Amino acid sequence: MKKEENTYYKETPKFGRNGPSKLKLQFKRGMTYFLVIVACILVYFAMLRIEAISNTFSKILDILKPVLYGCLIAYFLNPIVRKVDQYLVPALEKNMKNKEKAKNLSRSIGVAAAVVIMIAVVTALINMMIPELINSIRNLIFTLPSQINQLVKQVNNIKLDDSTMTSMLKNAMNEASTSLQNWIRTDLLNKVNELMTHLTVGLYTLVMEMFHAVVGVIVSVYILFGKEKFISQSKKAAYAIFPAERANLFIHIAVKTNEIFGGFIIGKIIDSIIIGILCFVGTSILNMPYAMLVSVIVGVTNVIPFFGPYIGAIPSAILIALTNPMKGIYFLIFILLLQQFDGNILGPKILGNSTGLSAFWVIVSILLGGGLFGIVGMLFGVPTFAVIYYVIKLLLDNKLEKKELPTVSGCYNEESYVDNEGVYHSGK
Known about the structure:
Layout (H helix, E strand, L loop, with lengths): L21 H27 L1 H14 L1 H31 L3 H59 L6 H62 L1 H15 L2 H42 L5 H11 L6 H16 L1 H27 L7 H44 L14 E2 L5 E2 L3
Antiparallel strand pairs: 1-2
Helix pairs in contact: 3-4, 3-5, 4-5, 6-7, 7-8, 7-10, 7-11, 8-9, 9-10
């Protein structure tokens, strides 16, 4: 007679007992003390070798730069892929029996469309900026000396009184003009050799960054194809490592972070594209020089909140003023009006209250981010600070709810108070 196969040990066993033993509790307490001591020693030695550790991290970041570029590119392209899936998956599932193949086909089309759009946008920006930039530099080199001479002649032709101050002013203008022209003809040319030595290093860095960007595009394709799997793995790890309540909190913060960053950055890009187009239309109607170049500069720098418009407007105005001083002034007035339209009408319509920050905290986050990380910090400082602000608000509201106190800031005005028993009174 054939024996039945024992299947008990084929199933995954459950670990643990009803409760920990005293020996195990003592062992855990001793391990806690030991780990605290080891951690203190490691921190001490880490502080002694902080420079070596920093160099190691920098080297690791340089190696992983294509992966970081890939994550960033995938984040920007994800809305396009998501939109394609939203409309294409239902249509393909109606016509295809295999739903998995329908989803894979939709994802392939979405990723291909996103990459093509990205390449088209980058190519268009390069074609718009590089020729205009070359022409502006060439015109600046050839026309600046004559413009300086013309300015000096105009100053000399101004009829002023023959005072000592007027003579000194004219002599200073003449000397400044002569010195500037001599510097352009002699010292500037000598600086070209020094510039060429740095150009090789800069060109190598540029080529390497372009290579990292190309590899990043390839990495982003893999990320976009497997984003659901990566999200599932992250959630699995969170529930495995942390208690369910803590894991749910982390996942909620991650979702909120994606919501804040996505809403702010994507909205700011759309807003900047519209501002760049409006700037090009306005400068073309006003017949200003370098209309395409200054419009691209204004549109790109407009991505930086608050200070971005001025960062782009000032060099653009100087560039236009070198050709026609009055048009430079007109350009500043036009940009001022355009930014008023953007700040009061267009921006709020597109962005809404995506960050939840007041104007004061926006300025603080831009200054802090820019001071620590430069242009990148100015761009990502606002959404990063918004996430930190949201987390702090979440923790404070949780503490107040446990104390059965209101969480709305407006409730804590001059008339309201909380008595010693912890009871809230509105004071009215």
